[in-house]
Structures are given as structure tokens and as C-alpha cells.
């Protein structure tokens, strides 16, 4: 699908074009919403709200090629708004997600995958919220620095710094944990 042309059609009021854009990334949107909400019903609610906002604001998008990062920013903001309204914290990755429910062909058992993810989640709890959020958006959701900066409303340099400092802290913690096991 040609994103730029689909966005131009959507900006002219073509609801079907907007729907096609959304459907093309529906799994990524759901994973992102679920990583914040940790609840299927709430994730679906924020997705619905995102779709309404996209429909209302599609005319404000200046760069058609930026549709997906723009829409994910709207989604993250909807998640944060709902969490704040419900007085909940941003959990981002509190529960292990075993390779989206698929067992890899590498021969690693599900139990080992869960254990490794639980270890990683335990290490992530030692980071501050900003570092954890930046690292998870970068490595779990494969977002670029610019998209993360837009979503979190900080500069790209701040995002890079948070990721770097968080990774440094994880390396130090991981080294300490492996030393304790031997």
C-alpha cells in the first residue's frame, strides 16, 4: 500500500483509505496499546479513541509519510490520558509476553523463554520510568528515536540519553546478577 497516497485520500475524507492505513498496522497498534494498558478491554478502548482522533485530525498531518509515527504518538497519548484518569501508573512490560504466543523453532522451551523474559522484566524494574519507557519503545516496539521523542514529548537527545543510561544500568545489574549465580 502506498502510504502517502492513502493519507492524501484520507485527508480528503476517504474513510476507507484511513481504515486501510489503520488495518495495515493493527497488530503494532494493539501491541503498543496493550503494553501500556496491560488489559485487553482498555487497550481496545484506547484504540477506538485513537481512531476517532485520527479521523478528526488527519487534516492536521503535514508530512504524509509520517502517518504511522504520528498515529502511534496519538495512541500513546491516549494511553497515558486514560491511565492518568484512572490514577494508574504506566506499567509498560510488567508481564512476560512469550514471543507473542509463538514458540520459536530454535528449540528453546516456552519455560526458558518465560524465565528469560521475567529476568529482563525484573532488571527493568531497577530503571526509572523514563528510562524503562524509552528502552521498551525502542527495543520492544522497534520505534526510532524521533518517534519516541514525539511520543514522550522530549528531545531526541533526551531519548538517546535515557536509553544509553538505562542500558548502562542494565549492563551493570546484569553483570552483578550473573556473578551471583556462579
UniProtKB/TrEMBL annotation:
- Which GO biological process annotations does it have? DNA-templated transcription initiation
UniProt xrefs under Pfam families: Sigma70_r2, Sigma70_r4_2
Residues annotated as domain RNA polymerase sigma-70 region: 25-88
Q: Which domain of life is it from?
A: Bacteria
Q: Which UniProt keywords apply?
A: Sigma factor, Transcription, Transcription regulation
Q: Which residues form the RNA polymerase sigma factor 70 region 4 type domain?
A: 118-170
**What would you give as a GO molecular function for this chain, any one?**
DNA binding
Q: Which InterPro entries match?
A: RNA_pol_sigma-70-like, RNA_pol_sigma-70_dom, RNA_pol_sigma70_r2, RNA_pol_sigma70_r4_t2, RNA_pol_sigma_r2, RNA_pol_sigma_r3/r4-like, WH-like_DNA-bd_sf
Annotated SUPFAM superfamilies: Sigma2 domain of RNA polymerase sigma factors (SSF88946), Sigma3 and sigma4 domains of RNA polymerase sigma factors (SSF88659)
Similarity-based family:
Belongs to the sigma-70 factor family. ECF subfamily.
NCBIfam families xrefs: sigma70-ECF
- Can you name this protein? Sigma-70 family RNA polymerase sigma factor
Lineage at the top is: Bacteria, Bacillati, Bacillota, Bacilli, Bacillales
Amino acid at each position: 500500500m502506498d502510504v502517502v497516497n492513502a493519507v492524501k485520500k484520507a485527508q480528503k475524507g476517504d474513510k476507507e483509505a484511513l481504515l486501510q492505513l489503520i488495518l495495515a498496522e493493527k497488530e503494532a497498534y494493539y501491541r503498543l496499546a496493550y503494553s501500556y494498558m496491560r488489559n485487553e478491554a482498555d487497550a481496545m478502548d484506547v484504540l477506538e479513541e485513537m481512531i476517532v482522533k485520527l479521523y478528526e485530525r488527519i487534516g492536521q498531518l503535514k508530512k504524509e509519510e509520517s502517518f504511522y509515527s504520528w498515529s502511534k504518538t496519538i495512541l500513546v497519548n491516549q494511553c497515558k490520558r486514560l491511565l492518568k484518569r484512572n490514577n494508574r501508573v504506566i506499567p509498560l512490560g510488567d508481564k512476560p509476553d512469550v514471543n507473542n504466543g509463538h514458540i520459536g523453532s530454535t528449540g528453546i522451551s516456552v519455560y526458558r523463554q518465560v524465565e528469560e523474559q521475567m529476568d529482563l522484566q525484573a532488571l527493568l524494574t531497577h530503571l526509572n520510568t523514563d528510562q524503562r519507557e524509552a528502552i521498551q519503545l525502542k527495543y520492544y516496539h522497534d520505534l526510532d528515536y524521533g518517534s519516541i521523542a514525539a511520543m514522550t514529548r522530549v528531545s531526541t537527545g533526551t531519548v538517546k540519553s535515557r536509553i544509553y543510561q538505562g542500558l548502562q544500568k542494565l549492563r551493570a545489574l546484569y553483570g552483578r546478577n550473573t556473578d551471583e549465580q556462579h
